[in-house]
């Protein structure tokens, strides 16, 4: 059993992170990229040691976990490349213009700088990709912030081993001591969140826990940004034309998506809206019945799923279509609207609800029923152009990622990705926790006005010694600046 971090150990971790912040923040992009790339290489090299521990603590299969290691090291390398290219700093230079109207313009040079030490609350359902070496840690390090990770109790030994691998890689590569730290224990995490040396926090977990931690972060004497990913139902809406064209494929794709990872993905489609008379019940129940039962991440999550499923099954108007390895429930839009709060409460695990709508007015009402989500999906055909044109803006208002004829499970790590959404899916819908712009959560802009070249940060100097991309007087260039 891994013991909780002691008060003395927590103080040391906080002090080390605060001491590392100036040097880490001042590091040149290419140097920081080298540190991050070293961590990626070390994770790949340690996979044979780390994956068996993850299998034992999470009950997840080896291929899934090895894929997570590759995802984690891959996104670290992506951030390294972006640092070297320069876009992560968003450098903007407007040179002085005495002829500017209505008044002369001074020389202005804007760059993103790191906030400082970041506290990351690791998630349970992705022991690598959203844990110690996950996206929050990777993006904060890329931003130039020291990171303290509060380990998830679902995989404590893996957290320790992963942190050891990363810290050693950072040490050998030459990063400041204190660049990464690990703490254990619920109360320890709360104490760290309240500490004035912590400048931002990232969280992935339940709505109640996320709301409680968010309240702590924003009511501190000096409030800090708290980027929480909380809960999401990820509704999928299907038109009659789509049912007619590929109903069977939609049925099997849906079941495959909501049961992926034993239904323990934050992007699991929790509801599938089908037109009344769809004729897909047999295909849906057959597909759900063919799903093999598998262990969940831990006893706490299993107990939460069992109680949530029991609650859902007792809601008036909700019927059971399948209940073997996966549970498939059914209701109608009329019944959903009558018991909205009961039906639209997330149940984390292998269960989803088919909701039948009668006509376009009910379909519109169904879309209106939702709060914020990470994703919303529309399955439609080319003949649905007018309807899609009406529905997509409604889905856009309620989700951070809108899918067309796809399934929301699986979140690509890329420049354009957005993994976030209106509350309660996140508490910061303008930011993503996946992709290049995830680093933006842990940066703030600073503009230097009429500052001599000799004292400017290297990335703002006229000569552009790092050769990064900069927007100069409106145009992107890697060239020098003439004053």
From TrEMBL:
The keyword Oxidoreductase applies. Pfam families: Aldedh. CDD domains: ALDH_KGSADH (cd07129). Residues 2-429 form the Aldehyde dehydrogenase domain. Keywords: Oxidoreductase. InterPro entries: Ald_DH/histidinol_DH, Ald_DH_C, Ald_DH_N, Aldehyde_DH_dom, Aldehyde_DH_Superfamily, ALDH_KGSADH. This is NADP-dependent aldehyde dehydrogenase.
């Amino acid at each position: 059993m891994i013991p909780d971090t002691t008060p003395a150990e927590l103080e040391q971790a906080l002090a080390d992170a605060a001491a590392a912040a100036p040097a880490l923040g001042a590091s040149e992009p290419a140097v920081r990229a080298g540190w991050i790339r070293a961590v990626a290489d070390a994770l790949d090299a340690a996979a044979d040691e780390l994956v068996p521990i993850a299998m034992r603590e999470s009950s997840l299969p080896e291929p899934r976990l090895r894929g997570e290691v590759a995802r984690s090291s891959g996104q670290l390398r992506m951030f390294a490349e972006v640092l070297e290219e320069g876009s992560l700093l968003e450098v903007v230079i407007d040179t002085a213009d005495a002829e500017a109207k209505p008044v002369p313009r001074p020389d202005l040079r804007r760059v993103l700088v790191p906030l400082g030490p970041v506290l990351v609350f690791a998630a349970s359902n992705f022991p690598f990709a959203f844990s110690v070496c996950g996206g929050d840690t990777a993006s904060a390090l890329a931003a130039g912030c020291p990171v303290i990770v509060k380990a998830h109790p679902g995989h404590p030994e893996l957290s320790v081993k992963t942190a050891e691998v990363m810290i050693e890689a950072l040490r050998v590569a030459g990063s400041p001591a204190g660049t990464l730290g690990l703490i254990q224990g619920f109360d320890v995490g709360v104490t760290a969140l309240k500490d004035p040396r912590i400048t931002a926090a990232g969280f992935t977990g339940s709505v109640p826990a996320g709301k409680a931690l968010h309240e702590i972060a924003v009511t501190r004497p000096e409030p800090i940004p708290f980027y929480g990913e909380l809960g999401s139902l990820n509704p999928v809406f299907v038109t009659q034309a789509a049912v007619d064209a590929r109903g069977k494929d939609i049925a099997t794709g849906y079941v495959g998506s909501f049961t992926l990872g034993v239904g323990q993905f934050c992007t699991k489609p929790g509801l599938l809206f089908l037109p009344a008379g769809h004729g897909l019940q047999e295909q849906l129940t057959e597909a759900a019945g063919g799903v093999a039962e598998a262990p969940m991440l831990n006893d706490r999550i299993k107990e939460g799923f069992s109680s949530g499923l029991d609650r859902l099954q007792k809601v008036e108007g909700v019927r059971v279509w399948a209940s073997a390895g996966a549970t498939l429930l059914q209701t109608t839009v009329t019944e959903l609207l009558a018991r909205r709060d009961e039906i639209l409460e997330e149940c984390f695990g292998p269960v989803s609800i088919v909701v039948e709508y009668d006509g376009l007015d009910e379909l519109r009402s169904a879309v209106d029923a939702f709060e914020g989500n990470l994703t919303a999906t529309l399955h439609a055909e080319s003949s649905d152009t007018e309807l899609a044109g009406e529905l997509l803006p409604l889905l856009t208002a309620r989700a951070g990622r809108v899918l067309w004829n796809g399934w929301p499970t699986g979140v690509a790590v890329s420049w354009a990705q957005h993994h976030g959404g209106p509350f309660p899916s996140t508490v910061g819908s303008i930011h993503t926790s996946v992709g290049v712009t995830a680093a933006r959560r842990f940066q703030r802009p600073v503009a230097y006005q009429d500052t001599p070249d000799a004292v400017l940060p290297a990335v703002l100097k006229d000569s552009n010694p790092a050769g990064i991309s900069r927007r100069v007087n409106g145009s992107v260039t890697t060239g020098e600046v003439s004053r």
